[in-house]
């Protein structure tokens, strides 16, 4: 009996061991199958994510077609009514030069300085969960309505006050749509494999729209004898039939705002200030400010062409058109051949080349081209083509840099702020150029010191080279900086569906601790950027007011 029990126990043990081995083998097979299945799912989800990102980076599909259409329309709207408006003010209304300056510099220039506030408003106050599409629709309607009312005004001579009001709202509507389009481009640039492609395309479209606007407007007035008010009506009709339908199909990701509107606004304002303190933001912005605020001889050189050299207005307009086509070429060359080049090398080489090429204007000023048998118009056109092409090749990396540096959640306001810094710096540069021109005694009839002005302007273009260490080396470095900013401010895809963290004292304390570990952020740097922005804005407004009062005294 005991032997039988022993044999039974031994058999049971063998059976249990065999069964256990079978179970383990089955479990291993199941785990291996699940692993393969998960890998397949991960690969599938990864492929789906790549495909989705590629679709998001496309701007010529139905969901994004409003973007390229807008930039073409923007270029058209900026150029198409410009000459008819100037002729209407001068010939029909009888506006003085001072009043014309008020219209162009103040009334139509002021909305450009409001881009920051428009961007902040759209980032913090979504309409039915959308931050871009409703504002773009509203801006288009406002721009269209203002130009149509201007064109349909019953009296041929509209009061100057009505004109200023309509033009202000027309430009304001265009700027609202512009800020939204810029933000949409920045959002799509994040999914772009080769940085700079989307921005090159939209700028080429903008320049192409400007060329069409210049040419069509000139042809309508010269050959069709079309009245300026008819031009204004057409200006309002164009976005109505091109841009408005495309906005309807625009895809704008919905966001969920939690908490009160005041809390959301304060949170975004705090995050914006926190972001401006990052060296990834304020240092490149200082470079852009220095780059854009340098003196130039543009206005004086234009008067030299139209004055002593005898260029006609039509010839000069063709020269400007050639310049815009050259800028298109610059954007294409950057996109095709230079987008992967190290930015430090690209800036250094192009700034040096640009400085040398801008100095070629000295040949025209000193009349050496005549001694060499080169006609003025041939030399001027060649100079315009080369200089404008190189100038926009220099400009493209700054545009790509601004877009790549914007962290998620505040794309609209931060990109608008960067563009404002550039615009205000250009205004400061214009004021400095005007003061330098006056100090040299250059007038509409006296160009004795134009050689010195062109030489100073050419040498001044080399100054930004000293600030190249402030600039990231490439777009990849900008992307990494943006991701770091997003991480510090707790901006990720999940949190953007609700209210971002960072408003509580505990969160801010943690963020401050992380910053101390990295030792990166600087209130002085952020303060410097804000100071340059505010001081530049005040300076440009004061300078404009002074010039306007001076012109009124002359009138």
What does this structure look like?
This protein is mainly α and 555 residues long. It has two domains: 60-257, MFS general substrate transporter like domains (Growth Hormone, Chain: A, Up-down Bundle); 259-555, Growth Hormone, Chain: A (Up-down Bundle). The protein has helices at residues 2-56, 66-79, 82-93, 97-107, 115-124, 133-151, 160-189, 197-222, 228-241, 243-248, 261-276, 279-292, 298-306, 313-338, 343-358, 361-365, 368-371, 376-405, 411-439, 450-460, 475-488, 505-518, 523-554. α5 (115-124) crosses α11 (261-276), α15 packs antiparallel against α20 and α19 packs across α23 (523-554). The radius of gyration is 30 Å and the shape is globular.
Low-confidence spans: pLDDT under 50, at least 5 residues?
Answer: 1-16, 491-519
Gap between N and C termini: 132 Å
Order of helices and strands: HHHHHHHHHHHHHHHHHHHHHHH
Shape descriptor reads globular
What is the domain total for the residues?
2
What oligomeric state do these chains adopt? single chain
Average pLDDT reading: 79
Q: Please report the total strand number as a whole number.
A: 0
CATH topology-level fold name of the largest domain: Growth Hormone, Chain: A
Approximate strand percentage: under 5%
Q: Any guess at the CATH architecture of the largest domain? A: Up-down Bundle
Largest sheet: none
Radius of gyration: 30 Å
Structural classification = mainly alpha
CATH class category label of the largest domain: Mainly Alpha
State the helicity in percent bands: over 70%
Number of helices: 23
């Amino acid at each position: 009996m005991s032997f039988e029990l022993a044999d039974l126990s031994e058999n049971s043990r063998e059976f249990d061991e065999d069964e256990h081995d079978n179970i383990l083998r089955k479990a291993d097979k199941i785990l291996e199958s699940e692993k393969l299945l998960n890998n397949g799912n991960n690969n599938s989800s990864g492929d789906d994510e790549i495909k989705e990102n590629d679709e998001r980076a496309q701007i010529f599909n139905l969901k994004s077609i409003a973007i390229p259409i807008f930039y073409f329309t923007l270029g058209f709207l900026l150029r198409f009514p410009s000459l008819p408006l100037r002729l209407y003010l001068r010939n029909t209304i009888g506006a003085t030069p001072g009043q014309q300056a008020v219209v162009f510099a103040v009334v139509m220039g002021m909305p450009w300085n409001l881009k920051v506030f428009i961007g902040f408003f759209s980032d913090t106050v979504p309409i039915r969960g959308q931050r871009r599409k409703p504002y773009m629709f509203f801006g288009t309607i406002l721009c269209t309505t203002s130009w149509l009312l201007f064109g349909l005004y019953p009296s041929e001579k509209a009061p100057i006050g009505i004109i200023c009001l309509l033009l202000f709202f027309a430009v304001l509507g265009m700027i609202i749509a512009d800020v939204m389009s810029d933000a949409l481009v920045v959002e799509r640039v994040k999914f772009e494999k080769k940085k700079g492609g989307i921005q090159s395309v939209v700028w080429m479209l903008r320049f192409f729209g400007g060329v069409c606007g210049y040419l069509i407007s000139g042809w309508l007035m010269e050959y069709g004898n079309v009245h300026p008010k008819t031009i204004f009506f057409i200006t309002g009709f164009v976005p109505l039939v091109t841009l408005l339908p495309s906005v309807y199909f625009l895809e704008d990701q919905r966001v969920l705002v939690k908490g009160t509107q005041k809390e959301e606004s304060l949170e975004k304002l705090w995050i914006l200030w926190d972001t401006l303190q990052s060296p990834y933001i304020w240092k490149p912005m200082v470079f852009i400010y220095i780059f854009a605020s340098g003196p130039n001889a543009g206005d004086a050189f234009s008067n030299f062409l139209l004055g002593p050299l005898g260029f006609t207005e039509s010839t000069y307009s063709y020269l400007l058109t050639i310049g815009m086509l050259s800028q298109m070429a610059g954007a294409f060359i950057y996109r095709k051949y230079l987008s992967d080049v190290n930015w430090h090398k690209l800036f250094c080489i192009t700034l040096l080349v640009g400085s040398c090429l801008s100095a070629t204007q000295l040949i025209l000023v000193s009349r050496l081209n005549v001694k060499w048998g080169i006609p003025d118009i041939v030399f001027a056109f060649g100079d315009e083509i080369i200089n404008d092409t190189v100038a926009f090749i220099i400009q493209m990396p700054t545009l790509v840099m601004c877009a790549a540096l914007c962290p998620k959640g505040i794309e609209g306001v931060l990109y608008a702020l960067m563009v404002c810094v550039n615009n205000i710096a250009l205004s400061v540069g214009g004021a400095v150029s005007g003061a330098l021109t006056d100090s040299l005694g250059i007038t509409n009839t006296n160009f004795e010191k134009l050689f010195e002005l062109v030489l100073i302007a050419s040498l001044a273009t080399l100054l930004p080279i000293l600030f190249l260490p402030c600039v990231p080396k490439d777009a990849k470095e900008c992307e990494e900086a943006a991701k770091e900013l997003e991480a510090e401010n707790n901006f990720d895809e999940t949190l953007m569906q609700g209210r971002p963290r960072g408003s509580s004292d505990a969160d801010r304390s943690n963020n401050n601790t992380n910053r101390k570990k990295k030792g990166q952020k600087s209130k002085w740097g952020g303060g410097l950027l804000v100071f340059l922005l505010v001081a530049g804005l005040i300076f440009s407004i004061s300078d404009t007011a002074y010039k306007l009062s001076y012109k009124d005294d002359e009138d």
